Amino acid sequence: MYQIKGPALCLLQFVGDKPPFDTLESITAWAKSLGFLGVQIPAWDRRLIDLDKAAESRSYCDELKERGNGLEITELVTHLYGQLIAVHPAYHKLFDAFAVPEVRGNPEARTSWAIGQMKKSLRASRNLGLSVAPTLSGALLWHYIYPWPPRPEAVVDLAFKELAKRWKEVLDEAEECGVDLAYEIHPADDLHDGVTFERFLAETANHPRVKMLYDPSHLFLQCLDYLGFIKYYGEYIKAFHVKDAEFRYSPRSGVYGGFQSWKDRPGRFRSVGDGQIDFKQVFTGLTEVGYRSWAVLEWECPVKDAEQGAREGADFIKSMLIQTPERPFDDFATGAIDTESMKNALGLD
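Request: output the structure for the sequence above.
Response:
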Protein backbone atom coordinates (compact mmCIF):
# COMPACT_ATOMS: atom_id res chain seq x y z
CA MET A 1 0.00 0.00 0.00
CA TYR A 2 1.15 3.51 -0.80
CA GLN A 3 0.94 5.99 2.06
CA ILE A 4 -0.20 8.85 -0.21
CA LYS A 5 -3.31 8.07 -2.25
CA GLY A 6 -3.59 8.78 -5.93
CA PRO A 7 -3.66 9.73 -8.63
CA ALA A 8 -6.71 11.99 -8.39
CA LEU A 9 -7.83 14.82 -10.65
CA CYS A 10 -9.19 18.25 -9.78
CA LEU A 11 -12.12 18.63 -12.19
CA LEU A 12 -12.23 22.42 -11.92
CA GLN A 13 -10.26 23.08 -15.11
CA PHE A 14 -11.93 20.28 -17.09
CA VAL A 15 -15.68 20.45 -16.55
CA GLY A 16 -17.55 22.01 -19.48
CA ASP A 17 -20.70 21.94 -21.56
CA LYS A 18 -19.55 19.35 -24.11
CA PRO A 19 -19.09 15.57 -23.65
CA PRO A 20 -17.29 13.97 -21.97
CA PHE A 21 -16.92 16.89 -19.56
CA ASP A 22 -20.55 17.87 -18.99
CA THR A 23 -21.81 15.30 -16.47
CA LEU A 24 -20.38 13.48 -13.49
CA GLU A 25 -20.90 10.11 -15.18
CA SER A 26 -19.08 11.06 -18.38
CA ILE A 27 -16.23 13.06 -16.88
CA THR A 28 -15.41 10.35 -14.35
CA ALA A 29 -15.48 7.71 -17.10
CA TRP A 30 -12.99 9.84 -19.02
CA ALA A 31 -10.79 10.35 -15.94
CA LYS A 32 -10.88 6.64 -15.18
CA SER A 33 -9.74 5.83 -18.71
CA LEU A 34 -6.62 7.93 -18.04
CA GLY A 35 -5.79 6.01 -14.86
CA PHE A 36 -7.17 8.33 -12.17
CA LEU A 37 -8.59 6.76 -9.02
CA GLY A 38 -10.30 9.82 -7.55
CA VAL A 39 -11.77 13.21 -8.45
CA GLN A 40 -11.98 16.52 -6.65
CA ILE A 41 -15.36 18.15 -7.37
CA PRO A 42 -16.04 21.93 -7.43
CA ALA A 43 -18.92 22.38 -5.00
CA TRP A 44 -20.56 25.15 -7.05
CA ASP A 45 -20.84 23.31 -10.37
CA ARG A 46 -24.40 22.03 -10.77
CA ARG A 47 -23.35 19.87 -13.72
CA LEU A 48 -21.57 17.66 -11.20
CA ILE A 49 -23.35 18.13 -7.87
CA ASP A 50 -26.51 19.63 -6.37
CA LEU A 51 -25.03 21.20 -3.25
CA ASP A 52 -28.40 21.82 -1.59
CA LYS A 53 -29.32 18.15 -1.88
CA ALA A 54 -25.85 16.99 -0.86
CA ALA A 55 -25.96 19.13 2.28
CA GLU A 56 -29.26 17.61 3.38
CA SER A 57 -29.36 14.04 2.07
CA ARG A 58 -26.99 11.17 2.74
CA SER A 59 -28.92 9.04 0.27
CA TYR A 60 -28.30 11.63 -2.46
CA CYS A 61 -24.59 11.58 -1.57
CA ASP A 62 -24.57 7.79 -1.74
CA GLU A 63 -26.18 8.03 -5.17
CA LEU A 64 -23.60 10.65 -6.20
CA LYS A 65 -20.77 8.30 -5.32
CA GLU A 66 -22.41 5.52 -7.31
CA ARG A 67 -22.44 7.76 -10.40
CA GLY A 68 -18.67 8.16 -10.33
CA ASN A 69 -17.70 4.98 -12.25
CA GLY A 70 -15.85 3.60 -9.25
CA LEU A 71 -13.72 6.72 -8.75
CA GLU A 72 -13.56 8.07 -5.23
CA ILE A 73 -14.71 11.62 -4.50
CA THR A 74 -11.63 12.94 -2.71
CA GLU A 75 -12.88 16.40 -1.66
CA LEU A 76 -15.35 19.13 -2.54
CA VAL A 77 -13.45 22.21 -3.72
CA THR A 78 -14.91 25.39 -2.17
CA HIS A 79 -12.48 28.01 -3.47
CA LEU A 80 -14.99 30.39 -5.05
CA TYR A 81 -17.14 30.46 -1.92
CA GLY A 82 -14.14 31.01 0.35
CA GLN A 83 -12.88 33.82 -1.88
CA LEU A 84 -16.17 35.70 -1.50
CA ILE A 85 -16.08 35.69 2.30
CA ALA A 86 -13.55 38.53 2.18
CA VAL A 87 -13.35 40.84 -0.84
CA HIS A 88 -11.75 44.27 -0.94
CA PRO A 89 -13.93 46.90 -2.70
CA ALA A 90 -11.41 47.18 -5.55
CA TYR A 91 -12.42 43.63 -6.57
CA HIS A 92 -16.19 43.81 -6.07
CA LYS A 93 -17.05 43.94 -9.77
CA LEU A 94 -14.70 41.13 -10.76
CA PHE A 95 -15.71 38.77 -7.96
CA ASP A 96 -19.43 39.37 -8.40
CA ALA A 97 -19.25 36.88 -11.25
CA PHE A 98 -18.60 34.11 -8.69
CA ALA A 99 -21.91 34.77 -6.91
CA VAL A 100 -25.54 34.16 -7.79
CA PRO A 101 -27.27 37.13 -9.51
CA GLU A 102 -29.43 37.84 -6.47
CA VAL A 103 -26.48 39.09 -4.38
CA ARG A 104 -24.38 40.81 -7.02
CA GLY A 105 -23.78 44.47 -6.34
CA ASN A 106 -24.45 43.91 -2.63
CA PRO A 107 -21.17 43.02 -0.88
CA GLU A 108 -22.77 42.35 2.50
CA ALA A 109 -25.37 40.00 1.01
CA ARG A 110 -22.69 38.32 -1.10
CA THR A 111 -20.55 37.63 1.99
CA SER A 112 -23.52 36.18 3.87
CA TRP A 113 -24.39 34.01 0.87
CA ALA A 114 -20.80 32.75 0.60
CA ILE A 115 -20.74 31.86 4.31
CA GLY A 116 -23.96 29.93 3.84
CA GLN A 117 -22.56 28.08 0.82
CA MET A 118 -19.42 27.17 2.75
CA LYS A 119 -21.54 25.72 5.54
CA LYS A 120 -23.56 23.70 3.02
CA SER A 121 -20.30 22.45 1.51
CA LEU A 122 -19.16 21.24 4.91
CA ARG A 123 -22.41 19.40 5.56
CA ALA A 124 -22.20 17.88 2.09
CA SER A 125 -18.62 16.80 2.78
CA ARG A 126 -19.75 15.10 5.97
CA ASN A 127 -22.57 13.33 4.13
CA LEU A 128 -20.07 12.13 1.53
CA GLY A 129 -17.81 10.77 4.28
CA LEU A 130 -15.05 13.30 3.57
CA SER A 131 -12.72 14.76 6.19
CA VAL A 132 -11.38 17.88 4.47
CA ALA A 133 -12.67 20.76 2.32
CA PRO A 134 -10.09 22.77 0.33
CA THR A 135 -10.78 26.50 0.12
CA LEU A 136 -9.37 30.02 -0.18
CA SER A 137 -9.30 32.61 2.58
CA GLY A 138 -10.38 35.65 0.59
CA ALA A 139 -8.45 38.91 0.78
CA LEU A 140 -8.88 42.27 2.48
CA LEU A 141 -5.17 43.12 2.37
CA TRP A 142 -3.74 41.86 -0.91
CA HIS A 143 -3.47 45.30 -2.50
CA TYR A 144 -1.15 46.26 0.41
CA ILE A 145 1.30 43.45 -0.43
CA TYR A 146 4.10 45.90 -1.27
CA PRO A 147 4.70 48.35 1.61
CA TRP A 148 4.55 51.59 -0.37
CA PRO A 149 3.20 53.93 0.72
CA PRO A 150 4.05 52.67 4.19
CA ARG A 151 1.03 50.88 5.62
CA PRO A 152 0.10 51.24 9.29
CA GLU A 153 0.59 47.95 11.13
CA ALA A 154 -2.80 48.55 12.71
CA VAL A 155 -4.38 48.09 9.26
CA VAL A 156 -2.88 44.60 9.03
CA ASP A 157 -3.99 43.77 12.57
CA LEU A 158 -7.54 44.90 11.86
CA ALA A 159 -7.72 42.98 8.58
CA PHE A 160 -6.72 39.67 10.17
CA LYS A 161 -9.15 40.19 13.05
CA GLU A 162 -11.94 40.85 10.54
CA LEU A 163 -10.93 37.84 8.43
CA ALA A 164 -11.03 35.54 11.47
CA LYS A 165 -14.38 37.04 12.52
CA ARG A 166 -15.92 36.32 9.12
CA TRP A 167 -14.68 32.74 9.12
CA LYS A 168 -15.65 31.92 12.72
CA GLU A 169 -19.12 30.47 12.10
CA VAL A 170 -17.79 28.47 9.13
CA LEU A 171 -14.98 27.06 11.26
CA ASP A 172 -17.44 26.22 14.02
CA GLU A 173 -19.62 24.43 11.45
CA ALA A 174 -16.51 22.57 10.28
CA GLU A 175 -15.88 21.42 13.84
CA GLU A 176 -19.46 20.20 14.17
CA CYS A 177 -19.21 18.33 10.86
CA GLY A 178 -15.79 16.86 11.64
CA VAL A 179 -14.30 18.37 8.47
CA ASP A 180 -11.03 20.31 8.24
CA LEU A 181 -10.81 23.50 6.18
CA ALA A 182 -7.65 23.24 4.08
CA TYR A 183 -6.79 26.82 3.09
CA GLU A 184 -4.77 26.90 -0.10
CA ILE A 185 -1.69 29.05 0.49
CA HIS A 186 -2.27 31.22 -2.54
CA PRO A 187 -1.12 34.62 -3.86
CA ALA A 188 -3.94 37.19 -4.16
CA ASP A 189 -5.39 35.82 -0.91
CA ASP A 190 -4.48 37.00 2.56
CA LEU A 191 -3.24 33.51 3.46
CA HIS A 192 -0.43 33.37 0.91
CA ASP A 193 2.58 32.16 2.93
CA GLY A 194 3.49 30.64 6.28
CA VAL A 195 3.58 33.93 8.17
CA THR A 196 0.08 34.93 7.07
CA PHE A 197 -1.25 31.43 7.83
CA GLU A 198 0.21 31.67 11.34
CA ARG A 199 -1.32 35.10 11.83
CA PHE A 200 -4.77 33.88 10.82
CA LEU A 201 -4.40 30.78 12.99
CA ALA A 202 -3.59 32.97 15.98
CA GLU A 203 -6.58 35.24 15.33
CA THR A 204 -8.86 32.17 15.30
CA ALA A 205 -7.46 31.15 18.70
CA ASN A 206 -5.74 28.17 17.05
CA HIS A 207 -9.02 26.76 15.82
CA PRO A 208 -8.53 23.01 15.35
CA ARG A 209 -10.12 23.05 11.87
CA VAL A 210 -7.67 25.59 10.38
CA LYS A 211 -5.48 23.47 8.08
CA MET A 212 -3.65 23.84 4.75
CA LEU A 213 -3.77 22.79 1.14
CA TYR A 214 -0.18 22.41 -0.05
CA ASP A 215 0.56 23.43 -3.64
CA PRO A 216 4.30 23.79 -4.26
CA SER A 217 3.81 25.92 -7.39
CA HIS A 218 2.48 28.89 -5.41
CA LEU A 219 5.36 28.69 -2.96
CA PHE A 220 8.00 28.26 -5.66
CA LEU A 221 6.86 31.37 -7.53
CA GLN A 222 7.17 33.37 -4.30
CA CYS A 223 10.77 32.13 -3.82
CA LEU A 224 9.74 30.20 -0.71
CA ASP A 225 11.54 27.04 0.40
CA TYR A 226 8.70 24.78 -0.70
CA LEU A 227 10.45 21.64 0.60
CA GLY A 228 11.29 23.11 3.99
CA PHE A 229 7.70 24.31 4.16
CA ILE A 230 6.53 20.68 4.33
CA LYS A 231 8.66 19.94 7.39
CA TYR A 232 7.72 23.23 9.06
CA TYR A 233 3.96 22.95 8.55
CA GLY A 234 3.50 19.22 8.03
CA GLU A 235 0.97 18.81 10.84
CA TYR A 236 -1.35 21.29 9.10
CA ILE A 237 -1.17 19.92 5.56
CA LYS A 238 -4.39 18.02 4.87
CA ALA A 239 -4.72 18.41 1.07
CA PHE A 240 -2.23 18.42 -1.79
CA HIS A 241 -2.39 19.82 -5.33
CA VAL A 242 0.20 18.43 -7.72
CA LYS A 243 1.00 21.40 -9.94
CA ASP A 244 4.29 22.40 -11.54
CA ALA A 245 5.81 25.84 -12.13
CA GLU A 246 8.89 27.50 -13.60
CA PHE A 247 10.66 30.83 -13.31
CA ARG A 248 12.57 32.08 -16.35
CA TYR A 249 14.81 35.01 -15.43
CA SER A 250 14.19 38.04 -17.62
CA PRO A 251 15.80 41.49 -18.02
CA ARG A 252 12.32 42.97 -18.53
CA SER A 253 10.06 41.47 -15.85
CA GLY A 254 10.20 39.68 -12.50
CA VAL A 255 8.02 38.02 -9.89
CA TYR A 256 5.25 40.61 -10.29
CA GLY A 257 4.88 39.73 -13.96
CA GLY A 258 4.47 43.17 -15.55
CA PHE A 259 0.67 42.71 -15.88
CA GLN A 260 1.39 40.19 -18.65
CA SER A 261 -0.61 37.09 -19.55
CA TRP A 262 0.41 33.81 -17.96
CA LYS A 263 2.24 32.68 -21.10
CA ASP A 264 4.53 35.73 -21.07
CA ARG A 265 5.23 36.02 -17.35
CA PRO A 266 8.70 34.98 -16.11
CA GLY A 267 6.98 32.88 -13.45
CA ARG A 268 4.23 30.62 -14.73
CA PHE A 269 2.46 27.36 -13.99
CA ARG A 270 3.27 24.25 -16.05
CA SER A 271 1.95 20.75 -16.50
CA VAL A 272 3.59 18.34 -14.08
CA GLY A 273 7.04 17.29 -15.18
CA ASP A 274 7.50 20.31 -17.45
CA GLY A 275 8.52 22.79 -14.75
CA GLN A 276 11.13 23.11 -12.02
CA ILE A 277 9.40 21.60 -8.96
CA ASP A 278 11.35 18.70 -7.45
CA PHE A 279 8.39 16.37 -7.01
CA LYS A 280 10.51 13.42 -5.87
CA GLN A 281 11.48 15.44 -2.82
CA VAL A 282 7.94 16.82 -2.42
CA PHE A 283 6.49 13.31 -2.23
CA THR A 284 9.36 12.21 0.03
CA GLY A 285 8.76 15.14 2.37
CA LEU A 286 5.01 14.58 2.55
CA THR A 287 5.56 10.89 3.21
CA GLU A 288 8.01 11.67 6.01
CA VAL A 289 5.62 14.05 7.79
CA GLY A 290 2.86 11.44 7.65
CA TYR A 291 0.58 12.88 4.95
CA ARG A 292 -1.91 10.14 4.09
CA SER A 293 -4.50 11.80 1.88
CA TRP A 294 -4.74 12.32 -1.88
CA ALA A 295 -2.28 13.61 -4.46
CA VAL A 296 -4.61 15.61 -6.73
CA LEU A 297 -3.49 16.81 -10.14
CA GLU A 298 -4.42 20.43 -10.79
CA TRP A 299 -3.75 21.34 -14.40
CA GLU A 300 -2.86 24.97 -15.14
CA CYS A 301 -0.50 25.48 -18.05
CA PRO A 302 -0.44 28.15 -20.79
CA VAL A 303 1.63 25.93 -23.12
CA LYS A 304 0.25 22.38 -23.04
CA ASP A 305 -3.31 21.23 -23.77
CA ALA A 306 -5.40 20.23 -20.75
CA GLU A 307 -6.17 16.70 -21.94
CA GLN A 308 -2.51 15.94 -22.61
CA GLY A 309 -1.65 17.40 -19.21
CA ALA A 310 -4.21 15.13 -17.53
CA ARG A 311 -3.11 12.03 -19.43
CA GLU A 312 0.55 12.57 -18.58
CA GLY A 313 -0.28 13.71 -15.06
CA ALA A 314 -1.93 10.44 -14.04
CA ASP A 315 1.19 8.45 -14.91
CA PHE A 316 3.44 11.10 -13.37
CA ILE A 317 1.71 10.91 -9.99
CA LYS A 318 1.79 7.11 -10.07
CA SER A 319 5.55 7.27 -10.59
CA MET A 320 5.94 9.50 -7.52
CA LEU A 321 3.95 7.43 -5.01
CA ILE A 322 6.08 5.89 -2.27
CA GLN A 323 5.45 2.51 -0.70
CA THR A 324 6.92 2.86 2.77
CA PRO A 325 9.17 0.03 4.03
CA GLU A 326 7.79 -2.59 6.41
CA ARG A 327 11.18 -2.97 8.11
CA PRO A 328 14.46 -1.01 8.27
CA PHE A 329 16.92 -1.84 5.49
CA ASP A 330 19.68 -2.66 8.01
CA ASP A 331 17.72 -4.79 10.46
CA PHE A 332 19.57 -7.88 9.23
CA ALA A 333 22.63 -6.55 11.04
CA THR A 334 20.96 -5.89 14.39
CA GLY A 335 20.33 -8.32 17.19
CA ALA A 336 19.08 -8.46 20.74
CA ILE A 337 21.58 -7.13 23.27
CA ASP A 338 21.27 -7.12 27.05
CA THR A 339 22.10 -4.27 29.40
CA GLU A 340 25.48 -5.66 30.43
CA SER A 341 26.52 -6.13 26.80
CA MET A 342 25.49 -2.54 26.02
CA LYS A 343 27.61 -1.27 28.91
CA ASN A 344 30.57 -3.31 27.65
CA ALA A 345 30.06 -1.89 24.15
CA LEU A 346 30.38 1.62 25.59
CA GLY A 347 33.32 0.79 27.84
CA LEU A 348 31.26 1.26 31.01
CA ASP A 349 31.63 -0.75 34.19
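The beta strands are 5-10, 38-42, 72-77, 132-135, 180-184, 210-214, 237-242, 244-247, 267-270, 294-297.
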